[in-house]
Amino acid sequence: MSENFNKKLGQRIRELRGQYGFNQEKVAKHLGIKRTSFSQIEIGERKISVEEIAKLSKLFNIPTDSLLDLNAEIKVELMKEPPKKEKQELRISVPQNRIDKFKEVLLYILDRVGSKSNVGETVIYKLLYFIDFDFYELYEEQLIGASYQKNHYGPTPVEFAKIVSDMEQSEEVVKVKEQYYQFPQTKYLPLRKPDLSKLKANEIKLIDEVLEKLSDYNANKISEYSHDDVPWMTTDEGEIIDYESVFYRTKPYSVRSYSEEEVQ
């Protein structure tokens, strides 16, 4: 971002803060930074990170793109109490081609790393999440396209239980209850090889990269790792994580190189 952009964005943030009646200390605390650092953001002397932009967007209750579009007018409607969000029932509705892709990706994961002692159900959930979201960030299209719900232990694919149950009945996988040190663990063993004709070369390449990076993590470590990814951080507990939020990832998690124009 250019110095001029930083100054204009800082002014916009200052105006929004004023409309909401927030002091600098409150907003700085929300961002997890010192008040002096936030003050530098407002006067354009400190570059704001994508993670901080996502948090401000949530605090001011405006879309991230509206916050960054300095030419757009933002009208803030102040309410004594925020409206209560009606809880939506989670429905599993996945096209057959996506179910087929889900099965082959899962079988590929199990074939590659399923025998590792640390790879139980929780680790598989997170591997699927990073495979899906990394692919979407890179190619702006879905690989599996599963729905991931935010819960205390990290992203969870809501379709997993139903699809795996079908795979058990068709004798494609078997569920095994084991112990990993002192903790109970659910493992899945593949009963057939994945059909690689249903996976594209770039899909296999990305899956391999995720497995290489994360498949040695145990359940606790990979859950904690997922908690610092912007898509998980900017989603309310129990809600479905929006794939579009992947474009605001911080550097350690982002798998895409953005041009200066894209950042601005």
Give the strand order of the largest sheet, numbering strands 1, 2, ... along the chain.
1-2
Radius of gyration: 21 Å
The rounded distance between the terminal residues' Cα atoms is: 6 Å
Order of helices and strands: HHHHHHHEEHEEHHHH
Shape: elongated
**Any low-confidence stretches, pLDDT <50, length ≥5?**
78-92, 260-264
Strand fraction: 5-15%
The number of helical elements comes to 12
Q: Tell me the number of structural domains.
A: 2
Portion of residues within helices: 40-55%
**Largest β-sheet summary:** 2 strands, antiparallel
**Broad structural category:** mainly alpha
Report on this structure.
The protein has helices spanning 3-20, 24-31, 35-42, 50-60, 64-68, 96-113, 121-139, 160-169, 201-214, 219-226, 230-233, 260-263; strands at residues 148-151, 154-157, 173-180, 183-190. It is mainly alpha-helical and 264 residues long. It has two domains: 3-68, lambda repressor-like DNA-binding domains (434 Repressor (Amino-terminal Domain), Orthogonal Bundle); 96-257, no CATH class. A two-stranded antiparallel ribbon has the order 1-2. The chain has a two-stranded antiparallel ribbon with strand order 3-4. Helix 2 packs across helix 3 (35-42), helix 7 (121-139) crosses helix 9 and helix 7 (121-139) packs parallel to helix 10.
